[in-house]
């Protein structure tokens, strides 16, 4: 007995309301962008400098007690959050303390950190500091710049690759889908105020890779079908191609999601934000390869004259024999 | 189309075998690690029964390359330091002054003027002789080798209203920066080696930064105590002792605070009698009262200078100065000929041990600013490893199960390929000595999810071809043929992003990029070669009339 999503190739019409879908996607992008502009991201210390201290204590975390101990030091904005995770032992009570970058200090000072540790130790002698991280304002500025460049570079490189392998309309569709995915992910992080640090940039780039993977598989089939059915309407060809690749899209998204959800639940709190970004990205990326990338392709139209023998005849690599 | 040449089959099997072989040590991480440590220790300090027993934990003929665990998994300290390369310019100008003075002596008397640290300003008593003086000073310039080969010299000299201004040329500044960085790296490396931790990473980053990662050390503060001190040691004659920080020291002298008497300041002659560069050894010890101290020994020339000076100045005080603070200022009791001595002060044992390490390893040419520091406790690292292990296993089993129920026998083929795939990732990581970080584990889990993609593409295509009622052999071969362009295009684009991540990223992000990149390469290999080989072999044996995928 096989588990099978579709007995036969499905036959949905994805493009009967394609303008509506494009509109919804556009609206969501605007909402995400507005949220990013108005509310802003909850940047981690990687991007805005400062210090985080992770504490562990056998007794229950008392945020007020910690705050009272630290307020004396007058370090400016301090945020204290208790961390919960199913993988923690009973006597493992974890808190994250974030201290803003200190004014007029380019470099990280030992004094601040040891003062913080001493103050907490005094309030609670059994406390342990399982990680202490400090980033100076100079580096954090550079990190955010490098991160932005990395995302732009990745999208640019992809644009060029797809352009070379397909047509420019495909490249435009794929890249708009990527921008859509990245914006929506940033929007979710800003809306839910999840901590945005260096690892999330890695997640963003992975989402770019994943979403592209999906888009390219659909486009590959579109290219093939455009040659096969020269007389059919573009909308029909797109529908056919998406339907034909649908069971693969589901299979891959599903296995990836299974793996990611396992990591989300069991992988510990340190990488939970990172994994969340990827889960979100897989969902959004799958959606966007159909309702953004393909819809854009429909909107832009494609050259249908394949009369000249094309070097990329559907399966350029097909001659490679195992 | 379903034939695969014998030599190709052998190549594929061989590649898999090598991958598994290289990955093998990681399955026995603890014993292999002890074995490797023991091998290194034996090389350094000879064999002991204990070390030999540890070495025997893992046979020598098996591969012993391991995936390094990143700081976030093992625990340890990470520092990013910026070297104040400009510090050295001042020292260079300081050394230039006597040279200029002596060169101009026969022409006209000169006086040194107040100036920024990286400039030397010299006023001529007789401004009329400016042209000649400029020529003489320019004559002191030495050529600097440059990349372009153009004739650059080390100093720029210009005249301005009776004052000669000497600065370092751009070419010389760059050459100096380069030297400063090389020295700093070397000295930091020596200091960390003195402490004796395993596998430290000491890397230059960009023009003037150094990244230091030391696994297993308790905290970044500890690490800073070792590498953060410049440790420039000098012995200077004392002119006087006072309490005024801003008193006029007089030309050729400087005012230096005392390290353990607040408010006390010494006026010292700027030119040291001997410097730390002439030390050959320093050891922690105790003085005659049983307090921690550091004993040291000079090299021959240092010993002679120190001996001569003490012989001539019995009864007067001299100062032991470390990084512009006076550690102690004893009075010379007698001639000290042997070139060895003892530094006493208000040390505890740890401080005297650290000072001895610093003196042995040598002084840093310039100060360090710390831009970033991270300490990860070993418990947190262990928790992350445990959580990562459980998550990987669960993800793995779930995907294996799902593939089996979806594709039956073909699913089993894909599953075997997936297991080989993950083993090969570990093999590759061990081979290049890459570092596994927590995001790296996430990269592996993601690969487990995505690696089946290439197989899914092929299997779905075979299903489609079967629907159009071709024979099974034809369907399988068409399935592989037609899925190939999608597999290649999809994976190249992902690989592009992995490469960009690797180039632009740092630390954990880079670890993620490495596992993701290797994962893409191995998953394409296993899908289009390994699974295919299994399918073909099965097909040859079974010769099924119909197949179900």
UniProtKB/TrEMBL annotation, chain A:
Forms a complex with SecD. Part of the essential Sec protein translocation apparatus which comprises SecA, SecYEG and auxiliary proteins SecDF-YajC and YidC. SUPFAM superfamilies: Multidrug efflux transporter AcrB transmembrane domain. It is found in: Cell membrane. GO terms for cellular component: plasma membrane. Part of the Sec protein translocase complex. Interacts with the SecYEG preprotein conducting channel. SecDF uses the proton motive force (PMF) to complete protein translocation after the ATP-dependent function of SecA. One of its GO terms (molecular function) is protein-transporting ATPase activity. GO terms for biological process: intracellular protein transmembrane transport; protein targeting; protein transport by the Sec complex. Residues 116-301 form the Protein export membrane protein SecD/SecF C-terminal domain. Keywords: Cell membrane, Membrane, Protein transport, Translocation, Transmembrane, Transmembrane helix, Transport. It is a multi-pass membrane protein. The lineage of its organism: Bacteria, Pseudomonadati, Pseudomonadota, Alphaproteobacteria, Rhodobacterales. This is Protein-export membrane protein SecF. It comes from the Bacteria. The keyword Transmembrane helix applies. The chain crosses the membrane at residues 20-38, 143-164, 171-192, 198-222, 250-268, 274-300. In the C-terminal section; belongs to the SecD/SecF family. SecF subfamily. In the N-terminal section; belongs to the SecD/SecF family. SecD subfamily.
């Amino acid at each position: 007995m096989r588990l099978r999503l579709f007995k036969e190739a499905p036959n949905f019409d994805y493009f009967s309301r394609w303008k509506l879908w494009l509109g919804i996607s556009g609206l969501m992008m605007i909402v995400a962008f507005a949220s990013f502009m108005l509310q802003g991201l909850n940047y981690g210390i990687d991007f805005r400098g400062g210090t985080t201290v992770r504490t562990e204590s056998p007794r229950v975390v008392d945020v007020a007690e910690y705050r009272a101990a630290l307020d004396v030091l007058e370090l400016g904005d301090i945020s204290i959050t208790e961390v919960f995770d199913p993988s923690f032992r009973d006597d493992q009570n974890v808190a994250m303390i974030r201290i803003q970058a200190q004014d007029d200090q380019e470099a990280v000072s030992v004094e601040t950190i040891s003062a913080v540790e001493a103050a907490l130790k005094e309030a609670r002698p059994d406390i342990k500091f399982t990680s202490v991280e400090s980033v100076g304002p100079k580096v954090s500025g550079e990190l955010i710049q490098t991160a932005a460049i990395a995302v732009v570079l990745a999208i640019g490189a992809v644009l060029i690759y797809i352009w070379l392998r397909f047509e420019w309309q495909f490249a435009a569709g794929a890249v708009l889908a990527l921008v859509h995915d990245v914006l929506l992910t940033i929007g979710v992080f800003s809306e839910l105020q999840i901590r945005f640090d260096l690892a999330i940039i890695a997640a963003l780039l992975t989402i770019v890779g994943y979403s592209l993977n999906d888009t390219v598989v659909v486009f590959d089939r579109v290219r093939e079908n455009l040659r096969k059915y020269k007389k059919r309407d573009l909308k029909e060809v797109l529908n056919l191609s998406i339907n034909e690749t649908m069971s693969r899209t589901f299979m891959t998204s599903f296995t990836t999601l299974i793996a990611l959800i396992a990591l989300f639940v069991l992988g510990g709190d340190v990488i939970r934000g990172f994994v969340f970004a990827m889960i979100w990205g897989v969902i959004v990326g799958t959606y966007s390869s159909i309702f953004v990338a393909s819809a854009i392709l429909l909107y832009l139209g494609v050259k249908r004259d394949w009369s000249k023998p094309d070097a990329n005849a559907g399966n350029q690599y097909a001659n490679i024999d195992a | 189309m379903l034939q695969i040449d014998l030599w190709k089959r052998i190549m594929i099997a061989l590649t898999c075998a090598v991958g598994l072989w290289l990955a093998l040590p990681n399955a026995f991480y603890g014993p292999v690690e002890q074995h490797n440590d023991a091998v290194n220790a034996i090389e350094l300090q000879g064999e002991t029964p204990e070390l030999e027993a540890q070495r025997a934990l893992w046979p020598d003929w098996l591969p012993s390359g391991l995936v390094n665990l990143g700081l976030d998994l093992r625990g340890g300290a990470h520092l990013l330091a910026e070297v104040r390369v400009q510090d050295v310019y001042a020292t260079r100008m300081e050394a230039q002054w006597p040279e200029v003075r002596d060169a101009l002596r026969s022409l006209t008397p000169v006086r040194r003027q107040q100036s920024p640290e990286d400039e030397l300003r010299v006023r001529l008593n007789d401004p009329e002789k400016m042209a000649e003086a400029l020529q003489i000073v320019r004559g002191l310039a030495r050529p600097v080798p440059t990349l372009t080969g153009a004739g650059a010299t080390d100093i720029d000299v210009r005249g301005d209203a009776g004052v000669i201004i000497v600065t370092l040329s751009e070419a010389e500044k760059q050459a100096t920066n380069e030297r400063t960085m090389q020295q700093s790296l070397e000295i930091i490396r020596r200091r960390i080696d003195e402490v004796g931790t395993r596998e430290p990473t000491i890397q230059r980053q960009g023009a003037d930064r150094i990244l230091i990662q030391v696994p297993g050390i308790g905290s970044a503060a500890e690490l800073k105590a070792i590498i953060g001190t410049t440790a420039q040691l000098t012995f200077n004659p004392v002119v006087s002792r006072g309490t005024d920080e801003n008193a006029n020291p007089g030309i050729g002298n400087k005012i230096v605070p005392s390290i353990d008497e607040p408010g006390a300041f010494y006026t010292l002659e700027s030119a040291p009698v001997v410097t730390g560069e002439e030390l050959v050894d320093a050891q922690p010890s105790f003085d005659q009262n049983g307090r921690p101290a550091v004993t040291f020994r000079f090299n021959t020339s240092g010993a002679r200078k120190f001996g001569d000076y003490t012989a001539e100045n019995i009864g007067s005080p001299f100062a032991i100065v470390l990084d512009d603070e006076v550690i102690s200022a004893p009075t010379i009791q007698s001639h000290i000929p042997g070139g060895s001595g003892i530094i006493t002060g208000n040390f505890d044992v740890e401080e005297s041990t650290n000072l001895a390490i610093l003196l042995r390893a040598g002084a840093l040419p310039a100060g360090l600013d710390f831009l970033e520091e991270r300490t990860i406790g070993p418990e947190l690292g262990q928790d992350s490893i445990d959580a990562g292990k459980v998550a990987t296993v669960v993800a793995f089993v779930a995907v294996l199960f799902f593939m089996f129920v979806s594709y039956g026998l073909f699913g089993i083929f894909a599953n075997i390929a997936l297991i080989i795939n993950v083993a090969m990732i570990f093999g590759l990581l061990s081979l290049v000595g890459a570092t596994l970080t927590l995001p790296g584990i996430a990269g592996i889990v993601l690969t487990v999810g995505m690696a089946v993609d290439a197989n899914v593409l092929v299997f779905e295509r075979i299903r489609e071809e079967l629907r159009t009622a071709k024979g099974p052999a034809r369907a399988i071969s068409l399935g592989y043929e037609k899925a190939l362009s999608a597999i290649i295009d999809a994976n190249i684009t992902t690989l592009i992003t992995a490469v960009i991540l690797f180039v632009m990223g740092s630390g954990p992000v880079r670890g993620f990029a490495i596992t993701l990149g290797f994962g893409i390469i191995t998953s394409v290999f296993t899908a289009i070669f390994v699974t295919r080989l299994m399918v073909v072999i099965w097909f040859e044996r079974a010769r099924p009339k119909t197949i179900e995928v």
